[in-house]
Amino acid sequence: MIEPVAAILIGAGQRGSEVYGEYALQHPEQVRFLAVAELDAERRQRFAAQHSISPEDQFESWKPLLARDQYGQAALVCTQDQQHTAPTLAALRAGYDVLLEKPMATTPDECRQLVDVAEETGRQLHICHVLRFTKHFSKMREIIQSGELGEVINISHRENVSWWHMAHSFVRGNWRQKEASAPMILAKCCHDLDILIWLMGQNCEQLSSVGNLLHYRPQNAPPGAPKYCLEGCPAAETCPYYAPFIYVELLPLWRSYAETAKGVSRLAAQAQERAPGLVNALSNLAPTLRGISEYRGWPISVVAQDPTPENLMDALREGPYGRCVYHCDNDVVDHQVVNMQFEGGASVTLTMHGHAHVEGRFTRIQGSRAELQATFGYGGSWIEVNEHRSDRRIHYDTSADNASGHGGGDDRLMDAFLKSLREGGSGKFDNSSHLSTARQSLESHLMAFAAEEARLEEKVVRMSEFREAGL
Ligand SMILES: NC(=O)c1ccc[n+]([C@@H]2O[C@H](COP(=O)([O-])OP(=O)(O)OC[C@H]3O[C@@H](n4cnc5c(N)ncnc54)[C@H](O)[C@@H]3O)[C@@H](O)[C@H]2O)c1
Asked: Is the pLDDT of residue 431 over 50?
């Protein structure tokens, strides 16, 4: 019998509550939350009720929580991007080992400070780079390391953010403004930059970047479009961004899911379009369908705390997610390309954009002995290797083997974090591990800052100079 790791949660929002809180409810033998800090009273109380946290252990903010005697070993910091550094530094100094959401911080100096304090205090500080934990990217790394591809010459990696996810998070939502959150290349792609370093087992030597905000601007609004979709928009029947279509009908989500899902789940997701009543009725016979017919998760859980169709419509009338995508106060890019050369000489491109029909990450790796193509989607994932000499085609199904988000990466990240705490991991740099320590994450974050500088100043950045500039 193992004792659950005692933990505190800072920020009981979508990630804190729906991912890590849910993990604790599903795995009470692994982790137990003893205290919570959350500004929003409704979220705080709901989390406290779910985890049986008594009133004296509920806090409006992280400061009074961390001023108390240490509750346990672990602190999970799940506040918004610009609110990561202060609570994490305080938690490390208070003796906690920390799991910190990405991006670790939004400036190079703050990232470095986090690394320094983690190493000074000897506490573990891991960043939630969930992709490392997926079966998909783990298999890809294994294939590269086995030598099956020969020498890696070129990688082309695409982060295809779907048009509706872009609208939700980066036009209407929390990550729409660079100054209030982070540049999109950091917010969305620190994961991808991290994965590229992890796959290659090498750092980037130099990079350049182009991109801008092309589409989600007032001049592209349909004629006569009001500020909110529900104010009688003349394009309600034709505009893909019409908010009730995205959030109440929820069809774009199910289409993205169906594209890569298999079996009954795929059929049920497809049937949501023509016969949602049938899926609902069948879910009594096949409980796995309930995940679709009674879906209450992201992105609708962000729009309304209790996302019934009525509550969603209310929230869309005047709330941020009901705004016309062409009349928002967004300024982050909707497409960006980063060209990189890695230390061993391989060339790598990362293309990120917010206009994909179906969400997913596509990777193509050209090796001297074989080529790898890979698709990582909402419903499933696969990798295909084509050998040059034999013309043999090897197919790997890399779909998640658990039901958690990010292709199963969310739960496996928590498993690994808790295991590392139990085993007293040092939190020191160790590139063989799936867990990303603060020092490892620093590199992908510096690449994102460098890419943003390269884009804005139209220049090539040498990473050695960029790293040294902040020392
Ligand atoms: N690892 C991933 O793949 C992944 C995916 C999505 C989001 N994220 C990151 O996770 C973080 C959280 O995202 P989210 O969508 O859950 O955000 P959210 O806005 O839903 O949750 C953040 C919560 O922090 C609370 N908060 C703010 N100030 C606080 C304070 N002083 N003390 C205590 N609580 C405070 C807010 O009230 C809010 O409920 C972000 O940095 C985001 O970029 C990571």
From this structure: no
Determine if ligand 1 sits within 6 Å of the CB of residue 102: yes
Cβ–ligand 1 distance for 40 under 6 Å, the answer yes
- In contact, 70 and 94? CB cutoff 8 Å: yes
Instruction: Delimit the domains of the chain by residue range.
Output: 5-131, 132-216+331-407+436-469, 221-322
Ligand 1 atom closest to the Cα of residue 84 is 41
Atom of ligand 1 nearest to the CA of 81: 41
Phi–psi pair at 210, nearest 5 degrees: -130, 160
Give the residue, 274 or 334, on which the prediction is more confident: 334
Structure confidence by residue, pLDDT tens digits, 92-103: 999 999 999 999
The class of domain 132-216+331-407+436-469 in CATH terms is alpha beta
Specify the pLDDT at position 425. Answer: 63
The reply to whether ligand 1 has any atom less than 6 angstroms from the CB of 79 is: yes
Q: Is 243 exposed, middle or buried (0-12, 13-18, 19+ CB in 10 A)?
A: buried
pTM above threshold 0.85: yes
> Residue whose CA is closest, atom 38 of ligand 1?
13
Output the CA 35–ligand 1 centroid distance in Å. Answer: 17
Whether the pLDDT of residue 429 is over 60: the answer is no
CA of 13 to the centre of ligand 1 (A): 5
Is 122 a residue whose pLDDT tops 80? yes
pLDDT digits (tens, 9 = 90+) for 193-204: 999 999 999 999
**Whether the CB of 298 sits within 6 Å of ligand 1:** no
- Find the 272 Cα to ligand 1 centroid distance in Å: 30
Is domain 5-131 classified as CATH 3.40.50.720?
yes
> Terminus-to-terminus CA distance in the chain, angstroms?
47
Q: Please compute Rg for the chain using Cα positions.
A: 22
Distance CA 3, CA 12 (A): 24
